[in-house]
Amino acid sequence: MKIYDLMSLEAKGYEERQVNVFYQNDAFKTRVIVLEAGGSIPACHMDTHVLFYVVHGTVKISCNGEKTMLEENQVFITEPATLSMESASGARLMGIQIKA
Question: What SS3 class is residue 34?
């Protein structure tokens, strides 16, 4: 058993996102995502189901062009889609890619 503190995990920006993976197996990959104030992640197509949990802050997510705001303690779940996100004030999330 392993417990992770999502607020204390070190995280890099989008360009170095591979180092943010803190758990991975054959079924899913879990990472911490940190967006600085004014930060964003460009649109990318995800071939898997994805779950984002907002640990701190607020995030605007675009899913196949449809936009919504996520706040602390909210979870966003989607089937494979084209996703992007941005945060005006900064945010910390947990992202899970769920393999089929």
Answer: strand
Q: 69-95 as b/e, with b when 16 or more CB fall inside 10 Å?
A: ebeeeeebebeebebebbbeeebbbbb
**30-59 residues labelled b (16+ CB within 10 A) or e (exposed):** bbbbbbeeebebeeeeeeebbbbbbbebbb
Q: What is the mean pLDDT of residues 26-41?
A: 95
pLDDT band at 65 (very low <50, low <70, confident <90, very high): very high
The answer to whether 95 touches 85, Cβ cutoff 8 Å, is no
| Residue of 86, 73, 99, 92 lying closest to 34 (CA atoms) | 92
The two structure tokens encoding residue 72 = 């602390």
